[in-house]
Amino acid sequence: MHLEFKRFTQIKPADITALNNHPKVLQQMPLGSPDFDDEKSRSWAEEKDAQWEINGYGPWAFVIDDIFAGWGGLQKEGDDADLALVLHPDFWGTGKIICDEIIRHAFDEMHLTSITILLPLSRKVSRFITRYGFQPDGSVNYDGVDFRRYRLFSDHTDGHIMAERSEREVFETRR
Length: 175
Description:
Elements: E1 3-6, H1 13-21, H2 23-28, H3 38-55, E2 59-64, E3 67-77, E4 80-87, H4 95-109, E5 114-120, H5 127-132, E6 135-142, E7 145-153
């Protein structure tokens, strides 16, 4: 598997449209709606890429074996860097590899002390949350939808990411 992290503007708008309108993806995203078209995808891609200029970090488009697989990374939510991961169902199961790199980047390169992840109340807590060590950290509301916030603290005192995870600690992307 060849994984690339790219800017959104490097992805065809039709591919972004297909992902953001996919029924299985929308089931996981309560703020999503099936109204993306190519023009909205272009604008959305530019907004996502602009986060890098505004905040110094932002989300990436993930390309696996030359196919747009999804998007994610760290997005600014208030004072927090929030981890997001949205994959096309054809790529569910690749999330662990991608998340490992996002978390490594957050702690080893950005030297953040913590990152968050938000889950809508409709989603049960996945094994990812507990196995990586995310801890409950309150709740937030966006556009009338309540989310549980979880926080992962870096325990790196020497510039290294958290202790190596065992092989059986697999990120659950299948719902």
